[in-house]
Structures are given as C-alpha cells and as structure tokens.
Amino acid sequence: MTSAAPAAGPSPRGPAGAAPAWRRLGAAVAWDLRTVLGNGEQLLVTAVIPVALLVAVTLTETPDPGPLPGPAAALAAAVAVAVVSSSFTGQAIALAFDRRSGLVRFLVSTPLGRPGVIAGRLVAVAVVVAGQLGLLLATAAALGEPAGGAAAAALAVVSACAAAAFTGLGLLLGGTVRAEGVLAVANLLWLAMVALGGLVVPVERLPGAAVVGLLPPGLLGEAARVATVEGRVDAGACLLLLGWAALAGALAARWLRWR
C-alpha cells in the first residue's frame, strides 16, 4: 500500500505560474514610473515647476525669505514643493483615474494583489522623489549655490519622511473620492499648501502659524529650511511627519476603494 503524497504547501512564488514577488513588484514600479515620465502634466508638477521655483527664488529672493539665506530658502522651498507634487498631488490623481478606468480593479485581481499595488506605488514615489532631489541639488550647484553634504543628507531624510506622509494622504484622497473631484481637490490643496501651507513662506510669517506648523506642509517646509540652513535633521518635525504617515496610511487601508 503506497502512502499518499504530502499536500503541497503555499509556494513563495504566489499563485501557480506567477512570477516571483520581486519581479511582480518591479513590474508595478516600472509601470508607475512610465506613467509619470510619459505624462506631460505630471512632469510639469514634479520637475519643471520645482526647478523654475528654485531658479526664480534664488535669483530674485521673492518671496522674501526674511532672515534666512536666500539660496538656502529657495532650495528648501523647491524640495518641499517637489515632494508634495509627486507624492500627494500626482499619486492622488493617478490613483483616482486608475480606479475609474478599471486598471486598479484589474491589478488587484492578478498575482500582484492589493499589497503589491500599494508597494509598487510607494517604491515608485521613492524613486521619483530621489530623482527630484538630485535634480534640484544639481540645479542649485549650477546656479553657484551648491548645498553642503550635511544639508543634502538632511534633505534626503526629510524628503523620505514627508513622502511617506503625503503619499498616505494622496492614497487616501485618490482612493475614496471620484476622479473628477480628486482632480479639483488635489490641485486646490496643492495651491493652498504652496501659498499658505508653509512650503515656500516660513510658517511664522503665516496666519494661524501655531496650527499650520503642526500640519504636514508646515512640518515639511520648516524641516526643509532647517536642513538647508543648518545642515541638520529636525527630528521633531520628522517624527510628526511619520505620525501623519501612520494615520493617513491606516485610514487609506480602511477606506480605499478599489473600483
């Protein structure tokens, strides 16, 4: 009498015939990056506007950075705007329209699954933010105002913490509101954050500074200015940004709609 063959356990490759998890994730990241790089509007907000802002503020010192060194304030403002553009505005709009087209519903039904869809977008945002930071640092150097090594390293840490917070907020908005509404709300919020949120103008010069300074845009703007002016990481601001990331991520996981 022959013994029955043992039941096969779950394969690390996922469903039968599926590619390894790392390859599925890589394909998702590549797709998201092609979406950003192949979209003129996305390139405008992720690259052209931050670079133009850096050049304009460096050369004219408008808006007036107050007691801060003009070039350092310009770099901080450009980095802050770039991070918000790619991780919040871009992600919210992309997710909303991918939901409307049925792409997200299709992707979550593949071996990639829901975790893979989210992970792919997070990694793609990290790649874009790293590219933006490199582009802005190179532009500052070309303008004759290079950032020191300490400032560049601090900006990288701040950008990572802020990207986590704003990506969570972007997924929350893009995953719960209809596409047309997201397009309007995301762009209006972007304008509000640039004008009154502390990304460009120091928080202490804005109305309601005590509240603005605790919101993600104010935290990012102040932390970016500390990084460029003092060459250090504002640990308090980064911790608060990570707190916002955890909150937004939890809410997005609970309420995100896949169709």
In short:
The protein has 259 residues and is an all-alpha fold. 73% of the residues lie in helices and 0% in strands. The N and C termini lie far apart (53 Å).
* Count of the domains: 1
What is the quaternary state of this protein?
single chain
> What number is the mean pLDDT?
87
Largest sheet: none
List the helices and strands in order.
HHHHHHHHHH
Count the beta strands: 0
- Could you list the spans in which at least 5 consecutive residues all have pLDDT below 50? 1-12
Description:
It is a single chain. By secondary structure, this protein is mainly α. Helices cover 73% and strands 0% of the residues. It has one domain. The longest helix has 32 residues.
How are the secondary structure elements laid out?
Elements: H1 21-37, H2 40-60, H3 70-101, H4 103-108, H5 113-142, H6 149-174, H7 179-196, H8 209-212, H9 216-230, H10 235-255
Provide key terms for this protein.
globular, mainly alpha, 259 residues, disordered N terminus
